[in-house]
């Protein structure tokens, strides 16, 4: 990856631990509120959903958009963030 946002770089710099879902690159404050309302308050719970979908990027993005109210940009950025995190730590 040639260009990494500071937020993505920070997220990838260490294990997820107890990071809040808003720490995931691409997750806006508004989207975080929607995710928390659906029980996805921690980054690891969102990662779990991504893994349950077998890291299928398109399926995960559709879920974020349809079920959580993400924009296409938010869905792409957050999916990329989790995919990159998996590449680094799994």
Automatic annotation (TrEMBL):
Q: Which UniProt keywords apply?
A: Nucleus
List locations, semicolon-separated.
Answer: Nucleus
Keyword set includes Nucleus: yes
Q: What is this protein called?
A: Barrier-to-autointegration factor-like protein
The family database entries (InterPro entries) matched by this protein are listed as: BAF, BAF_prot, BAF_sf
**What PANTHER family does this protein's entry cite?**
BARRIER TO AUTOINTEGRATION FACTOR 2 (PTHR47507), BARRIER-TO-AUTOINTEGRATION FACTOR-LIKE PROTEIN (PTHR47507:SF4)
One family name in Pfam for this protein: SAM_BAF
**Could you confirm whether the keyword Kinase appears in this record?**
no
């Amino acid at each position: 990856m040639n260009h990494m946002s500071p937020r993505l770089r920070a997220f990838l710099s260490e294990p997820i631990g107890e990071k809040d879902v808003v720490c995931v690159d691409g997750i806006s404050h508004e989207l975080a509120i929607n995710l928390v309302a659906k029980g996805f308050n921690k980054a690891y719970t969102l990662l779990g959903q991504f893994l349950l979908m077998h890291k299928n990027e398109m399926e995960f993005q559709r879920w974020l958009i349809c079920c959580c109210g993400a924009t296409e940009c938010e869905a792409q950025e957050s999916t990329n963030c989790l995919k990159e995190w998996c590449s680094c730590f799994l």
